[in-house]
Design brief:
The structure is a homodimer. By secondary structure, chain A is an alpha/beta fold. Chain A has helices at residues 5-13, 200-209, 234-238, 240-262, 279-289, 330-336, 342-345, 362-374, 390-400; strands spanning 45-46, 52-57, 64-67, 71-73, 75-76, 81-85, 93-101, 104-106, 114-116, 122-128, 145-153, 158-166, 180-184, 217-220, 272-277, 297-301, 350-356, 380-384. In chain A, the strands form 3 sheets. Chain A has an 8-stranded mixed sheet with strand order 11-12-14-13-15-16-17-18, with helices on both faces. In chain A, strands 3, 4, 7, 8, 9 and 10 form a 6-stranded antiparallel sheet that branches.
Chain lengths: 406, 406
């Protein structure tokens, strides 16, 4: 018994089902797959020493770049396949990249590993595998589940979603009540960012299996306080008051009650943590430090304090030109945290301020820490190598999760 | 209070976070978003009369097509934005399309509505909105949830996933035991296909809210019987015995036990249905009709019987050239269903064979129905307008779901 060539003929006849355009005069179906067209290209390909080769079939393209830590021109072979190989071996990690084909940025059509962008399009990632001890590696341990919730937000005024991770052995009918980490994505991401690029479910699987983190539920809300960010993302920046006020209200008055009704969770402040990256870091502090009665653990990563609403009359602090560190006047923080003082903050079990030293936001994070110091508020000060990237944030989460709910 | 231009400066400095490459000499950042580059383009845009305009910013591209019901050349304006508008209004539905930029097929970077392709890349969809009575429209009704499961398959030999829809008001600690529909995707899709392009969770939400379908759990398994289909999809076609045997074993021995352990489901054959499209339709019959003791409802859509293993010595039946209807010898079906007879089939509460009359697979579906008739097996014979498309399959599901578990 073997497949007849009837199968091949049929699949050709069915080409419209395949999400592939029909071959034609304009260079044939392009990209990476060879199922119906030319031979498949493998991309990305990671060599044993950690060098990465990127490939794209694009016979008719004039110019193709790969963007990974900068922009690298790719070269075309006589089969119309463009390729480029990193000059140096890359350390084990997940790195973002895309292609630019005649000026158009695209994700790698040969690579299913991507993160969604809320307005459309995708960012590709290449996995340079490492030892199982790296928190983001998929190991042979029990895996939690990720549940996608859909609801109509009366506060924001749109239909939106959030995700809930339940740990291995979570029993919805059992007696165990789990603590909850609310973990928020950054600007341009959607609610799935932490479980795709962030690999947060895999990280928690591993940390829980190793006994390093307590079994917990993780909630990834949508971090936009304005409606329909997929078609109107600019509203987020145009209306910072609404952005922060409404994302806070939606989390506390809509998402949190659904989670506490539908999951077996502990409902006291010592069983709630809030964290997030970039815009989500700014939201973390905005929500957490204004609701210390509800969250005992507050941890921001590479927080985009620059998005905070500015009090009338405040001027930018020195700096802030392109490529320079930005700074924010203390009045901005005082405006956002009017009731924060040392006594209130002393109720926190964790106040964690993390940022990479190559991050353009390091300046405003240091300004924020100066503001905390001016109030005699203790915090965990984390400055790591790295820029504004998921390579930093996965490591941040790996450090933060074990500190929660102790 | 208003945002200072510090915010804009900072976001420029942070451009690497945005999943967008830096602007440069090769035409600038391309695609659709204008947050950091030129003005945003809106794509797709549906006019009040149902005409659809597609747009892509690609100043340096030589040739851009949109593929929607064929390939249409787009035209470039003096801003470098390519566009094309459908000549006719389109009936309300979700239609697949992509762009071809200098020979490379890409999804629409301005449109987050996509379906994943298992090997990488995406298919875009445009929503032409219709009345709320259309089963796939998002209505103001209670929504179920979709849970993403991850497990290591000993049978297939890889790490894989499946999705579980739980209906509104599903109570994991309650007494209600729900029936289960196992619903399988087609070739090149992944396990998410039915809840993205298929909108199966939305369809079930609506049918349940209207009282047309019984509240049920839906499981969307991964329909590949060979390991790592994301990097080795051709193995599926190269080894049809393994494909069908192992996908059947993985469903019955791995996925089904997890579902029946972790969800409140009824575990008798009258509470189990199996359905699927294309490759998943061929699997539906392969699994369902060889396990009538386990499934009382079996419903295939546009089933790709051409993928079945061929008995030694069988020859293709006449037909089968490109663009022609394919046919399969009855010996193929007799080989795949050795124990099927009228007595066994009489235990089925539904045997449903659906296919569009413009589908290249209509011939093999008619052959299959002839095979059933030759065995005196009763079935529901559905031939609808339409080709091998999601426009057909969403309607199929809308017809099938109300017939289940009655």
């Amino acid at each position: 018994m073997k497949p007849s060539n009837l199968l091949v003929l049929t699949l050709l006849a069915l080409a419209p089902i395949s999400a592939q355009p029909p071959a034609g005069a304009a260079g044939g179906r392009g990209g990476g797959r060879g199922m119906f067209g030319g031979p498949a290209v493998k991309s990305p390909e990671v060599s044993a020493d950690g060098r990465v080769t990127f490939r794209l079939r694009a016979p008719a393209a004039q110019e193709v770049f790969v963007t990974i830590g900068g922009r690298t021109a790719m070269t075309k072979d006589d089969q119309g396949v463009w390729s480029a190989t990193t000059q140096q071996p890359m350390e084990p990690d997940y790195y973002p990249y895309n292609f630019i084909v005649d000026g158009v940025s695209i994700s790698d059509p040969s690579n299913p590993l991507v993160k969604s962008i809320v307005t459309g399009g995708f960012q590709s990632f290449v996995h340079v595998p490492g030892p199982s001890g790296l928190s983001w590696e998929l190991n042979d341990v029990p895996h939690g589940k990720v549940t996608h919730h859909f609801y109509k937000s009366g506060i924001i005024g749109d239909n939106r979603d959030f995700y809930v991770y339940t740990p291995p052995n979570y029993d919805p009918a059992g007696k165990t009540q789990y603590p909850v980490l609310y973990l928020i994505h950054g600007f341009t991401d959607d609610a799935s960012g932490w479980t795709t690029a962030g690999r947060a479910n895999i990280i928690l699987d591993n940390l829980i299996a190793q006994g390093k983190a307590k079994p917990m539920i993780m909630v990834n809300p949508l971090g936009y306080g304005t409606p329909n960010p997929d078609t109107n993302l600019s509203a987020v920046m145009a209306n910072p008051e609404r952005q922060f006020q409404d994302v806070s209200r939606a989390l506390l008055q809509e998402v949190l009650p659904i989670v506490e009704r539908e999951y077996r969770v502990a409902k006291d402040r010592n069983s709630r943590a809030i964290s997030g990256l970039s815009m989500g870091g700014a939201e973390t502090f905005y929500i957490g430090l204004n609701h210390i009665d509800q969250f005992a653990y507050v941890a921001g990563m590479s927080s985009a304090f620059v998005m905070y609403p500015k009090p009338a009359g405040s001027a930018p602090a020195p700096g802030g030109g392109r490529g320079q560190q930005q700074h924010l006047d203390a009045a901005v923080y005082a405006n956002v945290f009017p009731k924060l003082d040392a006594k209130a903050a002393s109720q926190l079990k964790l106040l964690y301020v993390a940022c990479g030293t190559d991050d353009g936001l390091i300046g405003v994070n240091r300004d924020f820490k100066d503001f905390l110091k001016s109030k005699d508020i203790a915090f965990t000060n984390i400055e790591t190598p790295g820029a504004h990237t998921w390579m930093v944030w996965r490591r941040n989460l790996t450090e933060i999760a074990p500190k929660l709910f102790r």
